[in-house]
């Protein structure tokens, strides 16, 4: 295996708070180990258009506290094509890059897996997504910050929901997963969470209404995971109007608010540990793995597993929301 001298780093897909902390950790750990670092702008797009800049230690100064990503991000359509990846490989080689660190979610790591297989390049991924939907890791970079944002927003909605004795559907992100909705509901003390993982098992809205919400009060906040099939919070409100007109329901869609903001300490520490682990992994000869965290320990998760969508939601937490809302 060729000796690694230069690392390219990119962020791809939806941004997540803590990506900057990860960029900083990758860059500084690489430099500490006498490697050179190149920052690739706008994800895979920048690899294709050759937007590649030299990174020094000072390139990542004063960014640990910032949301977003200094490298910018994109969802590159061209990288999905054989021609696009050929150009990306050429630019990578022309810039002397021997290995890549890719920070992103499932789409980005799927791209990394294909690219690594096609060109036999060492690539290590970091799970950067607010959705927490990658397998083989207990948490992803950005998830904790997004959860805190959701919690703070729902805390505020509680005031008006209680005053007006209303039912609120609060839509949160999550792609196809319900982690933000379920754990957001626990953190904010919401009455229920409607999540995609339960969709085929039970009519969650019907179940909720038949339970009678919280017995001790007339308002309720229900966190709804975004869901194209059911229409998310909007879909729930439409059903209420049609099927349960006795309720005065309102909706709030938190949207991209959830992707912004200064990362929490938990995300900064996670991103720093994972960033350092990515360089360690590459120097140990690891490739095609994502860095994960399991029971507090850094782990190497093969890309195939990371993107396999085999992570299961904690059923005890579904029960917990129910118990705590009596
Ligand atoms: O994967 C992160 C995420 O924020 C998802 O939760 C959401 O479904 C999606 O990205 C939104 O993407 P965009 O910013 O392209 O609208």
Number of E strands: 11
In helices, the fraction of residues equals 40-55%
What's the story with the biggest beta sheet?
Answer: 7 strands, mixed
Strand content: 15-25%
Side by side, the strands of the main sheet go 3-2-1-4-5-10-11
What layout of secondary structure does this protein have?
Layout: E1 6-11, H1 19-32, E2 36-40, H2 44-49, E3 52-55, H3 82-94, E4 99-104, H4 106-119, E5 123-127, H5 143-164, E6 167-172, H6 179-188, E7 192-194, H7 204-211, E8 220-225, H8 232-243, E9 249-253, H9 265-283, E10 289-294, E11 297-302, H10 303-306, H11 315-324
Parallel strand pairs: 1-2, 1-4, 4-5, 5-10, 6-8, 6-9, 7-8
Antiparallel strand pairs: 2-3, 10-11
Helix pairs in contact: 1-9, 5-6, 6-11
The chain binds 6-O-phosphono-beta-D-fructofuranose (F6P).
Can you walk me through this structure?
The structure is a single chain. With 326 residues, this protein is α/β, with parallel strands linked by helices. 40% of the residues lie in helices and 18% in strands. It has 11 helices and 11 strands. The protein has a 7-stranded mixed β-sheet with strand order 3-2-1-4-5-10-11, with helices on both faces. The protein is elongated and about 65 Å long.
Short description:
The protein has helices spanning 19-32, 44-49, 82-94, 106-119, 143-164, 179-188, 204-211, 232-243, 265-283, 303-306, 315-324; strands at residues 6-11, 36-40, 52-55, 99-104, 123-127, 167-172, 192-194, 220-225, 249-253, 289-294, 297-302.
Task: Sum up the structure in keywords.
18% strand; 11 helices; 4-stranded parallel beta sheet; binds 6-O-phosphono-beta-D-fructofuranose; 326 residues; 7-stranded mixed beta sheet; alpha/beta
């Amino acid at each position: 295996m060729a000796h690694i001298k230069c690392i390219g780093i990119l962020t791809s897909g939806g941004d997540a708070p803590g990506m900057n902390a990860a960029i900083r950790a990758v860059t500084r750990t690489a430099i500490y180990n006498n490697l050179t670092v190149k920052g690739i702008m706008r994800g895979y797009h920048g690899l294709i258009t050759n937007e590649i800049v030299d990174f020094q230690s000072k390139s990542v100064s004063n960014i640990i506290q910032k949301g977003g990503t200094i490298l910018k991000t994109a969802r590159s359509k061209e990288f999905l094509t054989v021609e696009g990846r050929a150009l990306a490989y050429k630019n990578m080689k022309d810039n002397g890059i021997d290995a890549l660190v890719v920070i992103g979610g499932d789409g980005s790591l799927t791209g990394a897996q294909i690219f690594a297989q096609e060109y036999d390049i060492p690539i290590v991924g970091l799970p950067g997504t607010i959705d927490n939907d990658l397998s083989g890791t207990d948490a992803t970079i950005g998830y904790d910050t997004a959860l805190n944002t959701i919690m703070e927003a729902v805390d505020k909605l509680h005031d008006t929901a209680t005053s007006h004795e209303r039912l609120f559907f609060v839509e949160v992100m999550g792609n196809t997963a319900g982690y933000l909705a379920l754990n957001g509901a626990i953190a904010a003390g919401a009455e229920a969470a409607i999540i995609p993982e339960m969709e085929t098992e039970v009519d969650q809205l019907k179940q909720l209404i038949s339970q009678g919400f919280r017995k001790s009060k007339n308002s309720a906040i229900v966190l709804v995971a975004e869901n194209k099939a059911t229409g998310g919070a909007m879909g729930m409100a439409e059903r209420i109007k049609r099927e349960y007109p006795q309720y005065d329901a309102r909706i709030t869609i938190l949207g991209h608010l959830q992707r912004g903001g200064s990362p929490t300490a938990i995300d900064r520490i996670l991103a720093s540990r994972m960033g350092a682990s990515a360089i360690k992994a590459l120097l140990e000869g690891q490739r095609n793995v994502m860095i994960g965290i399991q029971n507090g320990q850094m782990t190497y998760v093969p890309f195939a597993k990371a993107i396999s969508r085999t992570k299961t939601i904690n059923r005890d937490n579904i029960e917990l929301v129910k118990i705590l809302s009596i």
